[in-house]
């Protein structure tokens, strides 16, 4: 409120402007006389026009002071712009003759744009909406997802999403493979199975409802189809809920590539545990001889005529032999519980499959990992990225990735839980501890790579973003 | 020059007031082609006489070009499409790619922001009749750098708007897509140059009158190819010359990295100018129109060669100590400016040849002003940004220690 500045100036009229112009020409004494006459005229005109003094001081009006009168302001807008430009030009010319020049430098306050700190950077999830929930078995549900932005949720067959799940006030990050085919018209979904002690999985199986919002990172991961010369021949080994990325790989390949051939070995404990039984049957109908599905059950029902056993080294070799499949000729994808994956790995190597042709997807929850003892001291970290070396400090509790992001560096990452290697950096100098296991290959380890998302510096470090 | 002699007769007080106008008149009288004079004339009045860029209020320059729409979205220029793809992949973030935590002391002789003999100090001291202390010299060098970067910044603002106008007006659809990336590039250049001046040198000089003339002429010309020629070939050529020189000579790591990234972008911009104009000048304009453009670019090249004389620094520091003519002599004979001319013309002249504006008719004129040695150089479509940088790096290694020495 301008209460103590008193009355506000009235709108400017022709008399004001005439007075202002006169004031520019007349000597000071004459100007005072003319200005007083103008004010008097205002008052007289107001009285004749029936104006009364305002009852409240703040509402009172007065004649504008001479320095408040802008001659140009009563002109039409376009003309006003021209006149004021003309006046400025005139001022420059007159100024030059008087030996006056514009100052050589520009004085202005420091720009806010240049001093604003960068927005706080961290590993940020985005919301995905649950479109519907479908019960696949008594212990497993498929959760159909869509982007809240309305964009299409796109991914490659075999990739996964990581979710930040809130359970009883704590945040847990977990990865779930997309089980739908990566094809237009196939609604994207993950399939989640109840597991002993699985905090997030069990929560989702029991509580996921249409309309819920999940906080996700990704899709991430390189458990995807590799470029192939000639017709693609796949051997897929799945155990339990490990079927999720495997069925996506199978359906996507067979639909896309009419001459592809797929063999799937699928191990479960009981018949009622088999996820996607009906979907696999339908696929067999659709793709005929191009798809072979071999179910192996540990505890089969009485009328079961299929294979019996647990997917260990012997069973894997035996089943491949019985099916007449030569694994050496195939690209192999394996996903399931750790003992099953280790057994399959051993059997495949024994059958002569080159290591480079065996693709594996292992999920562990961060809390199950060998707990790397977290450093308790801040450590300086030098990050080389795009030709620039930036020094930042990794605070206790932060990973290399979090330290880099907090310094505003655009370090790449995707799943942020050691599952996709998008964040891998080369350790040039210093010591680190990493959460194990993670998805780095032996070759990558040998070349000095570490995963920034689950590695912490224990001494001053230098890392290089490839 | 006659005007110089006339001015000598006048008392000093009058002379200093009239000198700038005498120079403006002289400049206009140097332009021989009446069409070029007509196109540059009004801009010269606004820039040199009325100093519209320095009036302390935002400048409004009306534009009269046509926006060119094509509702069929043709894929009409493979090379421009390739430039678009490259431009998308090579975007960089001024916030994070540059290390803004670098401490910059422009007066520190250990990390020279520009070398001591960038300016001809011997001559300057000779005219003044006093020797400057190392500290005074360092201050002047810092100002010269701030002045240059200020002009870069003002030029980039012009480039930002011109790139947007050209994107509207160009008839290649692939060119429009590419042009949008150039608009982003120019915005980033404005961002980083301004940030450097604002937070590191803490000084911003007004726009140079001659630079204002060129920008004003481009913005108000309704012919899109003149905008294009002026901005993509001439001003970007000037920019490459100036950036290249400073990149070579500065020891300051942040500025060096900043310029390196900017040069990479600029190389694309000039390449685009060559692609678009080559085709246009060969197939879509008359010989008379081509000649007009040929003359125009020659005049503007001279303008750029002779007219960036840092009078703003003279007025701030040396007015009253030496005359304008003496200052002009100091700047014109400075090794830094020679270097700048060399880099600028070695980029500019081959590009003019490539777009068909270097016919046998105009060659003698270039020869007369000593530019024929650049006729055979490589044009922007034949040289990559990385070539450009490594060429500068190589030259830098060859530069005599004298020009790079931190202090004489």
Folded structure, characterized:
The complex is a heterodimer of chains A (466) and B (408). With 466 residues, chain A is an alpha/beta fold. Helices cover 27% and strands 26% of the residues of chain A. In chain A, the strands form five sheets. In chain A, strands 6-5-8-3-4-7 form a six-stranded antiparallel β-sheet. The two termini of chain A are 60 Å apart. The model of chain A is unreliable at 1-5 (pLDDT under 50). Chain B is mainly α and 408 residues long. Chain B has one domain: Ribonucleotide Reductase, subunit A. Chain B has 18 helices and no strands. Chain B has helices at 2-9, 12-30, 34-49, 78-89, 94-97, 121-128, 134-169, 173-201, 209-220, 224-249, 253-283, 287-307, 311-318, 324-332, 335-354, 363-368, 385-398, 401-404. In chain B, α11 packs across α17 (385-398). The two termini of chain B are 34 Å apart.
Annotation keywords:
heterodimer, A: 466 residues, 6-stranded antiparallel β-sheet, B: 408 residues, mainly alpha, Ribonucleotide Reductase, subunit A, 0% strand, disordered C terminus
């Amino acid at each position: 409120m301008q209460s103590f500045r008193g009355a506000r100036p009235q709108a400017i009229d022709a008399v004001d402007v005439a007075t202002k112009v006169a004031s520019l020409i007349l000597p000071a004494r004459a100007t005072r006389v003319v200005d007083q006459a103008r004010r008097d005229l205002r008052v007289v005109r107001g009285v004749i026009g029936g104006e009364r003094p305002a009852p409240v001081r703040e509402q009172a009006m007065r004649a504008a002071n001479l320095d408040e009168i802008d001659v140009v302001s009563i002109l039409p807008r376009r003309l006003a712009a021209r006149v004021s430009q003309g006046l400025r030009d005139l001022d420059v010319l007159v100024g030059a003759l008087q030996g006056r020049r514009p100052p050589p430098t520009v004085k202005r306050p420091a720009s806010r744009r240049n001093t604003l700190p960068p927005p706080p950077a961290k590993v940020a999830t985005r919301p995905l909406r649950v479109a519907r929930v479908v019960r696949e078995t008594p212990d497993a549900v498929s959760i159909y997802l869509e982007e809240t932005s309305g964009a299409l949720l796109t991914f490659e067959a075999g990739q996964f999403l990581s979710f930040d799940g809130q359970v009883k006030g704590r945040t847990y990050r977990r990865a779930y493979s997309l089980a739908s085919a990566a094809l237009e018209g196939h609604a994207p979904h993950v399939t989640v199975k109840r597991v002993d002690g699985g905090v997030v999985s069990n929560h989702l199986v029991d509580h996921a409802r249409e309309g819920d919002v999940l906080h996700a990172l990704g899709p991430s991961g390189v458990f995807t189809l590799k470029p192939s010369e000639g017709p693609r021949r796949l051997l897929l080994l799945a155990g339990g809920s490990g079927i999720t990325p495997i069925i996506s790989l199978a359906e996507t390949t067979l639909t896309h590539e009419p001459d592809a051939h797929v063999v799937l070995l699928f191990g479960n404990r009981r018949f009622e545990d088999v996820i996607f039984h009906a979907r696999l049957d339908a696929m067999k109908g659709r793709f005929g001889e191009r798809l072979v599905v071999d179910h192996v059950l540990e505890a089969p029902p009485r009328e079961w005529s299929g294979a019996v056993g647990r997917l260990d080294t012997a069973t894997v070799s035996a089943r491949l032999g019985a099916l007449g499949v030569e694994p050496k000729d195939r690209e192999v994808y394996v996903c399931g519980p750790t003992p099953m994956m280790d057994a399959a790995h051993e059997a495949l190597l024994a059958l002569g499959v080159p290591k480079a042709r065996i693709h594996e997807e292992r999920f562990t929850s961060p809390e199950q990992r060998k707990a790397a003892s977290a450093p308790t001291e801040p450590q300086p970290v030098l990050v080389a990225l795009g030709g620039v070396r930036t020094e930042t400090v990794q605070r206790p509790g932060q990973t290399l990735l979090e330290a880099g992001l907090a310094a505003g560096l655009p370090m790449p990452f995707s799943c942020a839980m050691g599952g996709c290697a998008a964040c891998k950096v080369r350790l040039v100098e210093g010591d680190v501890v990493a959460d194990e296991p993670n998805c780095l290959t032996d070759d990558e380890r040998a070349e000095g790579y570490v995963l920034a998302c689950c590695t912490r510096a224990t001494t001053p470090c230098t890392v290089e973003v490839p | 020059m006659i005007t110089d002699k006339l001015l000598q007769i006048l008392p000093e007080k009058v002379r200093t007031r009239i000198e700038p106008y005498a120079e403006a008149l002289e400049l206009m009288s140097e332009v021989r082609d009446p069409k070029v004079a007509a196109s540059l004339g009004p801009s010269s009045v606004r820039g040199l006489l009325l100093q519209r860029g320095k009036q302390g209020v935002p400048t409004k320059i009306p534009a009269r070009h046509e926006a060119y729409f094509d509702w069929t979205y043709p894929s009409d220029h493979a090379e421009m499409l390739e430039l678009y793809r490259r431009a998308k992949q090579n975007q960089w973030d001024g916030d994070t790619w540059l290390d803004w935590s670098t401490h910059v002391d422009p007066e520190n002789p250990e990390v020279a922001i520009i070398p001591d003999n960038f300016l001809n100090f011997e001559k300057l001291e000779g005219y003044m009749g006093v020797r400057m202390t190392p500290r005074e010299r360092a201050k002047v060098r810092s100002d010269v750098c701030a002045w240059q970067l200020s002009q870069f910044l003002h030029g980039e603002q012009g480039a930002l708007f011109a790139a947007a106008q050209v994107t509207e007006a160009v008839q290649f659809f692939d060119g429009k897509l590419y042009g949008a990336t150039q608009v982003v590039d120019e915005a980033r250049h404005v961002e980083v140059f301004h940030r450097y001046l604002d937070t590191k040198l803490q000084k911003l000089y007004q726009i140079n009158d001659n630079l204002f003339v060129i920008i004003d002429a481009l913005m108000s010309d309704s012919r899109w190819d003149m905008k294009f020629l002026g901005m993509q070939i001439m001003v970007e050529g000037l920019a490459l010359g100036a950036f290249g020189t400073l990149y070579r000579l500065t020891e300051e790591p942040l500025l060096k990295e900043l310029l390196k990234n900017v040069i990479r972008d600029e190389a694309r911009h000039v390449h685009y100018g060559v692609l678009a104009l080559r085709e246009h000048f060969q197939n879509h304009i008359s010989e008379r129109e081509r000649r007009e453009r040929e003359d125009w670019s020659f005049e503007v090249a001279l303008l750029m060669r002779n007219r960036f004389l840092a009078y703003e620094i003279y007025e701030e520091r040396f007015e009253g100590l030496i005359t304008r003519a003496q200052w002009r002599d100091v700047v014109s004979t400075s090794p830094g400016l020679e270097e700048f001319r060399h880099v600028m013309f070695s980029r500019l002249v081959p590009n003019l040849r490539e777009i068909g504006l270097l016919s046998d008719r105009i060659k003698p004129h270039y020869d007369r002003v000593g530019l024929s040695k650049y006729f055979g150089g490589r044009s922007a479509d034949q040289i990559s940004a990385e070539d450009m940088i490594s060429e500068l790096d190589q030259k830098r290694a060859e530069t005599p220690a004298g020009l790079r020495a931190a202090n004489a």
